[in-house]
Every structure is written in structure tokens, then in C-alpha cells.
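Teaching assistant here, posting this on the class forum so everyone can see the example we discussed in section. The complex has two components, and the goal was to see what a joint structure prediction looks like when all of them are supplied at once.
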Amino acid sequence: MLQDRRKDLLIALALIAPFVAIYALVFAYPTIQMFRISFTDAPLIGTGKWVGIANYTRLDNDPLFRRAVWNTLYFVALTVIPGTLIALLIALGVSRLAGRLQALVLALFFLPYILPVSVVYLIWDWTLNFQFGIAMHVLDWLGIPRVPVTKSRTWFMPAVAWVTIWWTAGFSILLFLAGMRAIPAEIYEAAELDNASRWTTFRRITWPLLRPVTALVLTIQLILQFKIFDQVYLFSIGGRPNDNMVLVYYIFNKAFQQNQGGRAAAVAVTLFVIIVVIAVLQFQLLRLAGRQRQ
Amino acid sequence: MTASRAQRWNLWAGMITAVTIVFAVIWAFPLYWAVVSSLKPEDEVVRPYIELWPETLTFQHYIHAVTATQIGTWYLNSIVVAVGVTVICVFTSMLCGYALSQMRFPGRTALWWIILASFMVPTQALIINHFELIADLGLVNTWAGIILPQLIHPVIIIVYKQFFDQVPRDFREAALMDNASEFGILFKVYLPMNWGVTTALSIVCFIWTWNAFLWPFLSVTRTEMMTVTVGITQVNDAFGVYYARELAAAVLAGLPVALAYLFFQRRVTEAITLSAGIKG
């Protein structure tokens, strides 16, 4: 009997061992290293001298870091709530359709989400092309002068935010639709019997019952958009990356372009802490939502 | 009175439906436009007016991409990396999810919390130390170097555990009575009962890895080791810009994931909703 239990334990360990090994190597160890080198003046590869919290304190006077923080917050503001709203409206529209038509329309909205970011970039770089882009033809029709969107300091972030919303809305739409499907049809039938108007039905039934999903979508978006890099980097090729600096870009720039691993790690730790705080809040929200459903 | 009210309702409903459909078409239009542009000769692409269909349909840009660029090599790299990550990740997650769901061992609760917690950590913050790790192991510019840091998808373990939890315990007890080993139970009972979720998770894991940009971009410096999603943005023609060629390369890079989605639409959407923490 005792031997059986020892055997069981060995089997359990064998089952979790591959994951634990990978986890330790590419997750736990790099995370500890990140904190450690953020207190040193290490280059990208190799060791450095201990410098205490100097890497953190100097961030305060670094205009590039300030711009990165500001641009990241700006980008978050431009994407999270507008993107969630657009996804909600689309989901409301899609949920009214049925059968094959619904599958087709959903596929049209969802397809961008499935594509790699570099493909999305090339498609929109072409669509927004100053000379030949189809978006510029639309501006011409509307009588608005053309804008070199990705080269313009004013329009860069809104344009990248729009492309990001276009790219990621499919995911939020899916979550909203799942949330809507979970609302029992009887509630709507009862509302119809009471002659409730469309708006009342939405405001009194759909919206309150969708609140947990909305909270989930918002936090997922918030975490996702804080980590913005790919689109900003790609649209900045041949442009002015320093004007469009965001947090992950700053880490990349310091570590990989200026070979200052320690200073980059201090920013990585900052980002790490921000995301973990948001994620803990999200987790609590999810638990609350789960309790509500029961 | 009631009739006219019902009519108004129908009119409203019809309008919302129409707006949704029109909006969907506009939404997807850039995709269509990119594909159509890639099928036009270069001089047609830059015409100052809109042509919704090419005057002369041509595949020259695709032929150019396949014969004159390294896209074939990038494709191979992408396939090796995406299949590698998917197989290793889904397999190890399945084993771990099974142990967490069906077995009792010391540290089980701690492991579960560690997995839940790692859900929150942004891998973007780890790029410096991932690079250091890969460099120390001598894996820069190798398939293994691109694969290794992408192997952590805690959500796959979480989903597996949820599904294994739902299998009635009678199955396990009956199999144990028959003297089946744990591995036997997992592969002959639990896995066949959960083929659906295994396929779904494999497809999305493949899509995630195929689409990854930041890490493949950082861990590779030689053009012949790039994945296709990185390669198409890093290598431009030396002389001027060829829009249609770029778009043809983009279409080729997006095609496998777009097809995977269109073929397995239900599975993909199911797995993606599951990965957000919503049970389908």
C-alpha cells in the first residue's frame, strides 16, 4: 500500500515535470533575472556592477521615458474604451442575425483578429498610403485634404489605435456574443409581453446582464494595450520612432539598440508591476462575476 | 394601431440588420482590397482611381515572392516553430492538467496557484532576459531559440484541467479496478473523451505562434532564420517600393492562419472564448 502511494507520487511528478522544467527555465529564472539586473548597469548580455536603485531614479529625468509613458497611456485611452464600445455595438448587431448569415457576418468581423500583426500592418500601410491608398480616395470624396497618416505626429497614434481596434475587435465581439447567448430567452419573452421598448429591453436586461463580460473585455483590452509594441514599431519603420515611443519599445530600444540591459530592465519591472496589478484586479472581478452567476 | 406598431418594429429590425451587414462588408474591405491589389500588375496598382477588379489578372507577384525572395525558407521556419511550440505546449500542458485534475500530490495547490499567477505576467517584460538565456545557451538564430520562450501558455493547462474535472469519476475508478496505469487512463480514457478540446487548443496554439512577432523578431538576426511574419516586414526590395509585391507576400503570410480559421471556424472560436476564461 505504501509502495502504491510512492508509485503514485512518482507518476504525478513525472506528469508535471516537463511543464515545471520549462516553466523554471523560461519563466521563473528570467523573471528573477529581470529584477536582479534592474539594479545593475549590465549590458544586454553579461554582468554589471550593482548600482542600487539608480536605474529607477534616473527614469524620472528621462524625457524619452516620459514620452513612452505618456504615449502608452494615450494609446490605452484611444483603444480600450472605444474598442470595447465598437465591439459591443457590432456584437448587438450580429446577435440579431441567425444561421448562415450570422456565421458569415461574424467571420467578416473576426477575420482580421486571426491575422499576424505584420500582415495587418502591410494591409493598412497600403490602405492609408498617402499617394495611392484607398482611404485617401475616401478623403478626396469627402473633400478633406489628404494626410500622411503614419508620418504625422498628430495622426500617428489615432491611426495605429484604429488599426488595433480593427485588428482585435473580433476577440471582444466573440466574448460579448458568448455573454449574450448566456442570457435566458425567457427574460426577453417576458419583456415582450410587457410591451417593453427596444431601448428599455437593452437598458434593463441586456446591459446589466452583460456587465461581467464587459468588465472582462475591458480588463483584457487594458492589459493587452499596455503591452503595445508590434504595431507602433512597424508603422514607425522609416519614420520617427522617438516620437512614437511606448513602454515596450523603450525596453527594446534601451536593451537591443543601446545595449543597456540594466536600464531597460528597470522599465521592464515597471511594466511588469503595472500589468500584474491590473491582472489581480481582473482576477478579483472574474471571481465576483463567477459568484454572481451562481 | 398594433399593426402599425409591429410594422415599425419590423422596419427597425430590418434597418439594424442592413446596417450590420453593410458595416461588415466595409470592415472586411481592406482585406479584399489587399488581395485584389496583389493580383494587379504594378502599374495598375498605382492608378489614381479605384478599380474593384484587376483589368489584367496576374499572379506575377506571387511567382516573384516564391522564386525571388526567401519566403519559402521563412515558411519552413514558421511551420517548424509553430508545430514545435504547439506539440510541446499542448502535450506538456495535457500531462500537467491531468495530474492537477486527477491526482493528489504534495505541492498540488501551490502549483495550481503558480499557474494561475503566471497568467498575469507580461512576457514582453521578459525579452531582455529571454535573449540573455538564449544567448547563454547558444541558441540565437536557431529554431530552438525561437521556440523555447514561447512554450509557456498557462491557459492551456487551465482549460485542460477544467475539462478533465468534468469527466465522471466512475470512468477512472473502473479503469483503476482493471489495473490500468495512470498513463493508460490518460491516453485511453481521458484523451479520447477530450479530442475536441485538444484539436481546438492545438489550432489556436498554432495560430498564436504563427502570428507571434516580438520574440521571433528579436531572437533572429539572419534573414534565412526569420519566420514569415517577421521576414515580410524586414526585407524590402532594394530599388523603390513595389506595393503589389509586398501585398502578395502579406497574403501568403496570412493564408495558413486564415484557412485554419475558415476550416475550423467553430473550434477556433470555441478555443478562443475558453482561453479568455469563459466556459463555452
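For the discussion questions: Chain B has a mean pLDDT of 89. Chain B is about 75% helix and 0% strand. Think about how each of these relates to the inputs above.
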